[in-house]
Amino acid sequence: MKREHNYPIGTPGKPWGDEEKAQWLAQTTIKRSYQQEVVSKIQALETDFDLFQYGALSYDVDKYPLLAIKTRNWDSSKPVVLVTGGVHGYETSGVHGALQFAATKAAQYSDRFNIVIAPCVSPWGYEVINRWNPNTVDPNRSFFADSPSEEAANLMKMVASLDGEVLVHIDLHETTDTDELEFRPAREARDGNLYIEDGVPDGFYTVGDTENPQPAFQKAIIDSVRKVTHIAPPDADGNIIGSPVQQEGVINYPLKALSLCNGMTDCTYGTTTEVYPDSDRATPAQCNDAQVAAITGALDYVIEQLG
Asked: Name one GO molecular function term (predicted).
Protein backbone atom coordinates (compact mmCIF):
# COMPACT_ATOMS: atom_id res chain seq x y z
CA MET A 1 0.00 0.00 0.00
CA LYS A 2 1.34 3.43 -0.91
CA ARG A 3 1.95 5.72 2.02
CA GLU A 4 0.85 9.27 2.53
CA HIS A 5 3.40 11.78 3.72
CA ASN A 6 3.28 15.12 5.50
CA TYR A 7 6.19 17.46 4.81
CA PRO A 8 7.72 19.13 7.90
CA ILE A 9 7.16 22.67 6.56
CA GLY A 10 3.70 24.18 6.27
CA THR A 11 0.20 23.07 7.12
CA PRO A 12 -1.19 20.04 5.25
CA GLY A 13 -3.65 21.11 2.59
CA LYS A 14 -2.57 24.78 2.67
CA PRO A 15 -0.23 26.23 0.01
CA TRP A 16 2.92 27.87 1.28
CA GLY A 17 3.12 31.59 1.79
CA ASP A 18 6.20 33.76 2.18
CA GLU A 19 6.84 32.48 5.72
CA GLU A 20 6.96 28.83 4.68
CA LYS A 21 9.11 29.60 1.64
CA ALA A 22 11.56 31.50 3.84
CA GLN A 23 11.61 28.59 6.26
CA TRP A 24 12.41 26.23 3.41
CA LEU A 25 15.22 28.46 2.12
CA ALA A 26 16.71 28.79 5.61
CA GLN A 27 17.25 25.04 5.86
CA THR A 28 19.19 24.79 2.59
CA THR A 29 22.98 24.61 2.84
CA ILE A 30 25.89 24.74 0.39
CA LYS A 31 27.16 21.20 -0.15
CA ARG A 32 29.52 21.53 -3.12
CA SER A 33 31.22 24.18 -5.23
CA TYR A 34 29.99 25.28 -8.65
CA GLN A 35 33.18 27.27 -9.20
CA GLN A 36 35.52 24.39 -8.38
CA GLU A 37 33.56 21.50 -9.86
CA VAL A 38 31.93 23.09 -12.91
CA VAL A 39 33.38 26.48 -13.86
CA SER A 40 36.95 25.18 -13.70
CA LYS A 41 36.04 22.33 -16.11
CA ILE A 42 34.39 24.76 -18.50
CA GLN A 43 37.41 27.05 -18.45
CA ALA A 44 39.69 24.09 -19.21
CA LEU A 45 37.96 23.80 -22.60
CA GLU A 46 38.87 27.30 -23.79
CA THR A 47 41.62 26.15 -26.15
CA ASP A 48 39.18 24.08 -28.21
CA PHE A 49 35.83 25.85 -27.89
CA ASP A 50 34.32 29.30 -27.69
CA LEU A 51 33.19 29.92 -24.12
CA PHE A 52 30.71 32.65 -23.26
CA GLN A 53 28.64 33.93 -20.40
CA TYR A 54 24.94 34.35 -21.12
CA GLY A 55 23.87 35.79 -17.78
CA ALA A 56 24.31 35.53 -14.03
CA LEU A 57 21.98 34.67 -11.18
CA SER A 58 21.01 37.63 -9.02
CA TYR A 59 21.43 35.49 -5.90
CA ASP A 60 25.19 36.10 -6.33
CA VAL A 61 26.25 37.39 -9.75
CA ASP A 62 29.95 36.77 -9.14
CA LYS A 63 29.49 33.28 -7.77
CA TYR A 64 26.85 32.11 -10.26
CA PRO A 65 27.76 33.14 -13.82
CA LEU A 66 25.79 31.24 -16.46
CA LEU A 67 28.29 29.76 -18.88
CA ALA A 68 28.01 27.98 -22.21
CA ILE A 69 30.30 26.23 -24.65
CA LYS A 70 30.14 26.57 -28.45
CA THR A 71 31.94 24.74 -31.21
CA ARG A 72 34.21 27.02 -33.20
CA ASN A 73 33.71 28.23 -36.77
CA TRP A 74 29.96 28.53 -36.36
CA ASP A 75 28.42 28.07 -39.80
CA SER A 76 24.84 29.20 -40.41
CA SER A 77 24.46 26.47 -43.05
CA LYS A 78 24.84 23.72 -40.42
CA PRO A 79 22.05 22.55 -38.08
CA VAL A 80 22.19 23.62 -34.43
CA VAL A 81 22.46 21.09 -31.60
CA LEU A 82 21.59 22.26 -28.09
CA VAL A 83 22.71 20.26 -25.05
CA THR A 84 21.49 21.35 -21.63
CA GLY A 85 22.39 19.96 -18.22
CA GLY A 86 21.70 20.88 -14.64
CA VAL A 87 18.30 22.46 -15.25
CA HIS A 88 17.67 20.65 -12.00
CA GLY A 89 20.96 21.46 -10.33
CA TYR A 90 20.97 18.45 -8.04
CA GLU A 91 21.07 16.00 -10.97
CA THR A 92 24.81 15.49 -11.05
CA SER A 93 25.33 13.43 -14.21
CA GLY A 94 23.31 15.95 -16.19
CA VAL A 95 26.00 18.51 -15.47
CA HIS A 96 29.05 16.30 -15.67
CA GLY A 97 27.73 14.26 -18.58
CA ALA A 98 27.40 17.49 -20.57
CA LEU A 99 30.94 18.49 -19.62
CA GLN A 100 32.26 15.04 -20.50
CA PHE A 101 30.59 15.19 -23.90
CA ALA A 102 32.17 18.59 -24.51
CA ALA A 103 35.60 17.37 -23.48
CA THR A 104 35.59 14.04 -25.31
CA LYS A 105 33.07 13.94 -28.16
CA ALA A 106 31.70 17.31 -29.26
CA ALA A 107 34.58 18.15 -31.60
CA GLN A 108 33.94 14.92 -33.53
CA TYR A 109 30.49 16.22 -34.50
CA SER A 110 31.44 19.82 -35.21
CA ASP A 111 31.88 19.21 -38.93
CA ARG A 112 28.16 18.37 -39.19
CA PHE A 113 26.63 20.54 -36.48
CA ASN A 114 26.92 23.83 -34.67
CA ILE A 115 26.86 22.68 -31.03
CA VAL A 116 26.09 24.78 -27.98
CA ILE A 117 26.24 23.28 -24.50
CA ALA A 118 24.83 24.86 -21.33
CA PRO A 119 26.17 22.35 -18.79
CA CYS A 120 24.77 23.82 -15.57
CA VAL A 121 21.62 25.88 -16.02
CA SER A 122 20.94 26.06 -12.26
CA PRO A 123 24.24 26.58 -10.42
CA TRP A 124 22.61 27.51 -7.09
CA GLY A 125 20.64 24.28 -7.27
CA TYR A 126 23.90 22.46 -8.05
CA GLU A 127 25.55 23.78 -4.91
CA VAL A 128 22.68 23.10 -2.49
CA ILE A 129 21.71 19.86 -4.30
CA ASN A 130 18.12 20.89 -4.88
CA ARG A 131 15.49 20.82 -7.59
CA TRP A 132 14.23 24.36 -7.01
CA ASN A 133 15.82 27.80 -7.05
CA PRO A 134 15.87 29.94 -3.86
CA ASN A 135 12.32 31.15 -4.56
CA THR A 136 10.91 27.58 -4.46
CA VAL A 137 10.47 27.73 -8.25
CA ASP A 138 11.21 24.67 -10.36
CA PRO A 139 13.17 25.90 -13.40
CA ASN A 140 12.02 22.89 -15.39
CA ARG A 141 8.40 23.96 -15.19
CA SER A 142 9.22 27.57 -16.06
CA PHE A 143 10.11 27.77 -19.76
CA PHE A 144 7.53 30.34 -20.80
CA ALA A 145 7.33 34.11 -21.38
CA ASP A 146 7.88 36.21 -18.25
CA SER A 147 9.27 33.17 -16.48
CA PRO A 148 9.59 33.39 -12.68
CA SER A 149 12.86 31.44 -12.99
CA GLU A 150 16.02 33.41 -13.76
CA GLU A 151 17.62 30.14 -14.80
CA ALA A 152 15.00 29.43 -17.45
CA ALA A 153 14.67 33.03 -18.61
CA ASN A 154 18.41 33.43 -19.20
CA LEU A 155 18.65 30.16 -21.09
CA MET A 156 15.68 31.01 -23.32
CA LYS A 157 17.19 34.40 -24.14
CA MET A 158 20.51 32.81 -25.02
CA VAL A 159 18.95 30.18 -27.27
CA ALA A 160 16.84 32.81 -29.03
CA SER A 161 20.03 34.73 -29.85
CA LEU A 162 21.70 31.81 -31.65
CA ASP A 163 22.37 32.08 -35.36
CA GLY A 164 20.23 29.28 -36.75
CA GLU A 165 17.31 27.13 -35.71
CA VAL A 166 17.79 24.33 -33.20
CA LEU A 167 17.35 20.96 -34.91
CA VAL A 168 18.31 18.76 -31.94
CA HIS A 169 17.87 19.44 -28.23
CA ILE A 170 19.09 16.93 -25.65
CA ASP A 171 18.26 17.84 -22.05
CA LEU A 172 20.18 15.76 -19.50
CA HIS A 173 18.44 14.77 -16.25
CA GLU A 174 18.36 12.18 -13.49
CA THR A 175 15.58 10.50 -11.52
CA THR A 176 16.87 9.95 -7.98
CA ASP A 177 15.64 8.36 -4.77
CA THR A 178 15.42 11.87 -3.34
CA ASP A 179 12.67 12.64 -5.85
CA GLU A 180 10.40 10.52 -3.65
CA LEU A 181 12.09 11.17 -0.32
CA GLU A 182 12.32 14.97 -0.59
CA PHE A 183 11.42 16.76 -3.79
CA ARG A 184 7.95 15.44 -4.56
CA PRO A 185 6.87 15.72 -0.90
CA ALA A 186 8.16 19.32 -0.85
CA ARG A 187 6.33 20.18 -4.07
CA GLU A 188 3.02 18.82 -2.85
CA ALA A 189 3.41 20.64 0.47
CA ARG A 190 4.26 23.89 -1.32
CA ASP A 191 1.13 23.59 -3.44
CA GLY A 192 -1.15 22.45 -0.62
CA ASN A 193 -1.61 18.95 -2.04
CA LEU A 194 -1.40 15.53 -0.44
CA TYR A 195 1.72 13.55 -1.33
CA ILE A 196 1.26 9.85 -2.10
CA GLU A 197 4.48 8.00 -2.78
CA ASP A 198 5.33 6.48 -6.14
CA GLY A 199 8.22 4.32 -7.26
CA VAL A 200 11.59 5.31 -8.71
CA PRO A 201 12.47 3.44 -11.92
CA ASP A 202 15.70 1.47 -11.74
CA GLY A 203 17.52 2.37 -14.91
CA PHE A 204 17.81 4.81 -17.78
CA TYR A 205 14.81 6.12 -19.72
CA THR A 206 13.93 9.04 -21.99
CA VAL A 207 11.02 11.45 -22.19
CA GLY A 208 9.86 12.32 -25.69
CA ASP A 209 7.31 14.88 -26.82
CA THR A 210 3.68 13.81 -26.99
CA GLU A 211 3.20 16.19 -29.93
CA ASN A 212 6.39 15.10 -31.73
CA PRO A 213 7.44 11.73 -30.30
CA GLN A 214 10.08 10.66 -32.87
CA PRO A 215 10.07 7.01 -31.72
CA ALA A 216 12.96 5.91 -33.94
CA PHE A 217 15.10 8.74 -32.56
CA GLN A 218 14.26 7.74 -28.98
CA LYS A 219 15.03 4.09 -29.77
CA ALA A 220 18.44 5.05 -31.14
CA ILE A 221 19.23 6.74 -27.83
CA ILE A 222 18.07 3.75 -25.79
CA ASP A 223 20.10 1.37 -27.96
CA SER A 224 23.20 3.52 -27.50
CA VAL A 225 22.79 3.81 -23.73
CA ARG A 226 22.12 0.10 -23.16
CA LYS A 227 25.77 -0.51 -24.07
CA VAL A 228 26.70 1.50 -20.96
CA THR A 229 23.98 0.87 -18.38
CA HIS A 230 20.63 -0.84 -17.95
CA ILE A 231 17.29 0.45 -19.23
CA ALA A 232 14.42 1.08 -16.81
CA PRO A 233 11.62 -1.49 -16.93
CA PRO A 234 7.96 -0.45 -16.60
CA ASP A 235 6.18 -0.88 -13.28
CA ALA A 236 3.36 -3.37 -12.73
CA ASP A 237 0.93 -0.98 -14.46
CA GLY A 238 3.12 -0.58 -17.56
CA ASN A 239 4.22 2.90 -16.54
CA ILE A 240 7.39 4.82 -15.73
CA ILE A 241 6.82 7.64 -13.22
CA GLY A 242 3.10 7.41 -13.86
CA SER A 243 3.26 7.64 -17.66
CA PRO A 244 2.59 4.77 -20.09
CA VAL A 245 5.70 3.24 -21.62
CA GLN A 246 5.64 3.81 -25.39
CA GLN A 247 8.52 1.44 -26.13
CA GLU A 248 11.35 0.09 -24.02
CA GLY A 249 12.65 2.91 -21.84
CA VAL A 250 10.57 5.67 -23.43
CA ILE A 251 7.65 7.74 -22.16
CA ASN A 252 6.16 10.94 -23.59
CA TYR A 253 5.12 14.22 -22.00
CA PRO A 254 3.38 17.27 -23.50
CA LEU A 255 6.59 19.25 -23.22
CA LYS A 256 5.37 22.71 -24.20
CA ALA A 257 2.16 22.46 -22.14
CA LEU A 258 4.25 21.60 -19.07
CA SER A 259 6.77 24.40 -19.80
CA LEU A 260 9.66 21.95 -19.74
CA CYS A 261 13.14 22.83 -20.94
CA ASN A 262 12.99 20.37 -23.83
CA GLY A 263 9.86 22.11 -25.12
CA MET A 264 11.34 25.58 -25.37
CA THR A 265 12.33 25.26 -29.04
CA ASP A 266 10.57 23.87 -32.09
CA CYS A 267 13.33 21.33 -32.67
CA THR A 268 12.62 18.30 -34.81
CA TYR A 269 14.55 15.95 -32.54
CA GLY A 270 14.22 16.43 -28.81
CA THR A 271 14.66 14.21 -25.78
CA THR A 272 15.01 14.43 -22.04
CA THR A 273 17.32 11.79 -20.60
CA GLU A 274 16.79 10.29 -17.17
CA VAL A 275 19.63 8.44 -15.45
CA TYR A 276 19.17 6.58 -12.15
CA PRO A 277 22.30 7.26 -10.09
CA ASP A 278 21.08 5.46 -6.95
CA SER A 279 20.99 2.05 -8.58
CA ASP A 280 23.21 -0.69 -7.20
CA ARG A 281 23.94 -1.48 -10.84
CA ALA A 282 25.38 1.90 -11.84
CA THR A 283 28.43 3.90 -10.78
CA PRO A 284 28.82 7.69 -11.07
CA ALA A 285 31.13 7.12 -14.03
CA GLN A 286 28.52 4.95 -15.75
CA CYS A 287 25.91 7.65 -15.20
CA ASN A 288 28.11 10.23 -16.91
CA ASP A 289 28.93 7.75 -19.67
CA ALA A 290 25.21 7.08 -20.16
CA GLN A 291 24.55 10.77 -20.73
CA VAL A 292 27.34 10.93 -23.29
CA ALA A 293 26.05 7.77 -24.98
CA ALA A 294 22.58 9.33 -25.17
CA ILE A 295 23.97 12.40 -26.94
CA THR A 296 26.14 10.47 -29.38
CA GLY A 297 23.36 7.99 -30.12
CA ALA A 298 21.03 10.88 -30.85
CA LEU A 299 23.49 12.67 -33.12
CA ASP A 300 24.50 9.52 -34.99
CA TYR A 301 20.82 8.90 -35.72
CA VAL A 302 20.26 12.45 -36.96
CA ILE A 303 23.32 12.26 -39.20
CA GLU A 304 21.85 9.13 -40.81
CA GLN A 305 18.56 10.96 -41.42
CA LEU A 306 20.30 13.97 -42.93
CA GLY A 307 22.31 11.76 -45.26
From this structure: zinc ion binding
Burial 82-111 (b: 16+ CB within 10 A, else e): bbbbbbbbbbbbbbbbbbbbbbeebeebbe
In whole angstroms, give the CA distance from residue 52 to residue 46: 10
Per-residue pLDDT of the chain in tens (307 residues, 90 and over written 9): 344 557 999 999 999 999 999 999 999 999 999 999 999 999 999 999 999 999 999 999 999 999 999 999 999 999 999 999 999 999 999 999 999 999 999 999 999 999 999 999 999 999 999 999 999 999 999 999 999 999 999 999 999 999 999 999 999 999 999 999 999 999 999 999 988 888 899 999 999 999 999 999 999 999 999 999 999 999 999 999 999 999 999 999 999 999 999 999 999 999 999 999 999 999 999 999 999 999 999 999 999 999 8
Please, what is the angle between helix 215-225 and helix 284-306, to 10°? Answer: 140
C-alpha–C-alpha distance, residues 280 and 266, integer Å:
37
Detail the DSSP E strand segments found in the chain: 4-5, 50-56, 65-70, 80-85, 114-118, 166-174, 195-196, 205-209, 239-240, 243-244, 250-253, 269-275
